[in-house]
């Protein structure tokens, strides 16, 4: 069997925190650059040709088929959320290389171009936009807008990645909004991912197929009040944005809970940040998810309405800005059914997590997702897990799926 475990051991120390055991692998920082170097080495060791687009997306191709001819691509991403798990992303890339090894061991000779991808900034943990690399690769985001995105230190994306250069260009030199050219000819994409919930635990199955992705979005709440003395200012004389935020966080949780949806404030910035001062400004980021575009819009509108009503009582103001919104995705039904049948009728479930696969599907590439059981049911956390036996079952499932697609 292909050396899945060897590759996994090589990646394990890269970007791991000694204190939490979690991973910080933000794009274009040291750990992620090391992972990109590993990707190139893994590709070279297999005789694959690596292409990198001007945004940093990577694809490694088996020899024998021309660029631009009909291609099948598999892979995922190498970046992580802040203090995330080992598996979200890298599992799909390592499994892709291992699946190619298995095809070779089985003597499968692909009749189509076949490659392994690693999309950059999938998590949007540095520049705030989910699936930024794949959006740029397919032309669903423009470089003119993306280059101005800044990270928490104020560094511009345009200053860390080369980009296509010319204003108005999208990466392939044609300036036609069709993407970077990296995916030219790609007709099918299959992404393997660790499960980020409990579906396969409950069904007692090691591997499943996703049929769709819930729509999700990130919304910045800028709540402005008035800085004041924490001791001398009477409670009734304050304009405290922290109160508006606190009620908004509770309202978001309740709105999502009663509807069976998701709403999370996971990031907060308080200015000026003094213990003995009423803050002047709270900036908070809402992540909201629901089963349809209309349900998501209704959830987000209800949370904003409650925040605004509360601001009226607190003497504060609220401004909401949508920073990253991803619509509902239904993966290619024919491909889904073909894969599920080929894999012996594995479970088919939707996911509430975002993926580059959703961006490629929306760009017209027939896309499918395999996912591997996570015994903790936890993700975006150091507690994310996958058993080696399940990962190996995932590699076999991916190899079986690819065999059906390239022969
Ligand atoms: C990415 O994993 C997301 O769902 O935000
Ligand atoms: Mn993730
Ligand atoms: Mn992921």
Largest β sheet strand count, sense and barrel closure? 9 strands, mixed
**What small molecules does this complex bind?**
glyoxylic acid, manganese (II) ion
Number of domains: 2
Query: In sequence order, what are the helices and strands, one letter per element?
Result: HHEEEHEHHHEHEEEHEEEHEEHEHEH
* CATH topology grouping of the largest domain: Aminopeptidase
Proportion of helical residues: 25-40%
Report the CATH architecture of the largest domain.
3-Layer(aba) Sandwich
| Beta content | 15-25%
The backbone outline, from C-alpha atoms, is: globular
What is this structure, in a nutshell?
This protein is α/β, with parallel strands linked by helices. Helices cover 34% and strands 23% of the residues. The protein has twelve helices and 15 strands.
Topology:
Blueprint lengths: L3 H8 L18 H16 L3 E4 L5 E4 L9 E7 L12 H16 L7 E7 L12 H7 L4 H4 L10 H4 L25 E9 L4 H5 L3 E7 L2 E9 L3 E2 L11 H19 L2 E10 L5 E2 L2 E9 L3 H22 L2 E10 L2 E2 L2 H10 L5 E4 L4 H7 L3 E7 L15 H19 L1
Parallel strand pairs: 3-4, 3-5, 5-15, 6-14
Antiparallel strand pairs: 1-2, 2-4, 6-13, 6-15, 7-11, 7-12, 8-10, 9-11
Helix pairs in contact: 1-3, 3-12, 8-9
Structural description of this entry:
- The protein is an alpha/beta fold.
- The chain folds into two domains: 2-214 and 328-406, 3-Layer(aba) Sandwich (Aminopeptidase); 216-326, Alpha-Beta Plaits, CATH 3.30.70.360.
- The chain is built from twelve helices and 15 strands.
- It has helices at 4-11, 30-45, 90-105, 132-138, 143-146, 157-160, 199-203, 241-259, 293-314, 333-342, 356-362, 388-406, and strands at 49-52, 58-61, 71-77, 113-119, 186-194, 207-213, 216-224, 228-229, 262-271, 277-278, 281-289, 317-326, 329-330, 348-351, 366-372.
- Strands 1, 2, 3, 4, 5, 6, 13, 14 and 15 form a nine-stranded mixed β-sheet that branches.
- Helix 3 links the parallel strand 3 and strand 4 (113-119).
- The two termini are 21 Å apart.
- The site of glyoxylic acid has 4 residues, from loops.
């Amino acid at each position: 069997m292909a050396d899945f475990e060897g590759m996994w051991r090589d990646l394990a120390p890269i970007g791991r925190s000694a204190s939490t055991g979690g991973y910080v692998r933000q794009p274009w920082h040291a750990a992620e650059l090391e992972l990109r170097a590993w990707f190139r080495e893994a590709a070279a060791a297999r005789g694959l040709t690596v292409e990198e687009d001007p945004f940093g997306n990577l694809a490694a191709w088996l020899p024998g088929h021309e660029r631009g001819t009909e291609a099948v691509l598999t892979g995922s991403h190498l970046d992580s959320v802040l203090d995330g798990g080992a598996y979200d992303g890298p599992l799909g890339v390592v499994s892709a290389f291992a699946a190619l090894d298995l095809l070779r061991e089985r003597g499968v000779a692909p009749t189509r171009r076949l490659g392994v991808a690693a999309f950059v900034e999938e998590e949007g943990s540095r520049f705030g936009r989910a699936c930024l690399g794949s959006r740029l690769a397919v032309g669903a985001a423009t470089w003119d807008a993306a280059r101005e995105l800044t990270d928490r230190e104020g560094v511009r994306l345009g200053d860390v990645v080369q980009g296509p250069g010319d204003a108005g260009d999208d990466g392939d030199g044609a300036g036609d909004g069709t993407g970077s050219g990296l995916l030219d000819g790609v007709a099918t994409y299959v992404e393997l991912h660790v499960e980020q919930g409990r579906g396969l635990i409950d069904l007692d199955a090691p591997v499943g197929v996703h049929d769709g992705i819930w729509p999700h979005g990130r919304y910045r709440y800028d709540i402005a009040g008035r800085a004041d003395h924490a001791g001398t200012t009477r409670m009734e004389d304050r304009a405290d944005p922290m109160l508006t935020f606190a009620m908004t966080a509770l309202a978001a949780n309740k709105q999502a809970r009663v509807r069976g949806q998701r709403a999370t404030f996971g990031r907060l910035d308080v200015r000026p940040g003094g213990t003995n001062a009423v803050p002047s400004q709270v900036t908070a980021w809402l992540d909201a998810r629901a089963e349809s575009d209309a349900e998501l819009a209704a959830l987000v509108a209800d949370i904003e309405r409650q925040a605004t009503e509360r601001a009226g009582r607190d003497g504060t103001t609220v401004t909401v800005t949508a920073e990253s919104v991803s619509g509902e995705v239904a993966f290619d039904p024919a491909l889904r059914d073909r894969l599920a049948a080929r894999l012996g009728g594995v479970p088919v479930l939707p996911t509430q997590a975002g993926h580059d696969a959703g961006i490629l599907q929306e760009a017209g590439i027939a896309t499918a997702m395999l996912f591997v059981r996570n015994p903790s049911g936890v993700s975006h956390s150091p507690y994310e897990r996958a058993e080696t036996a399940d990962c190996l079952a995932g590699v076999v499932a991916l190899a079986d799926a690819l065999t059906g697609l390239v022969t």
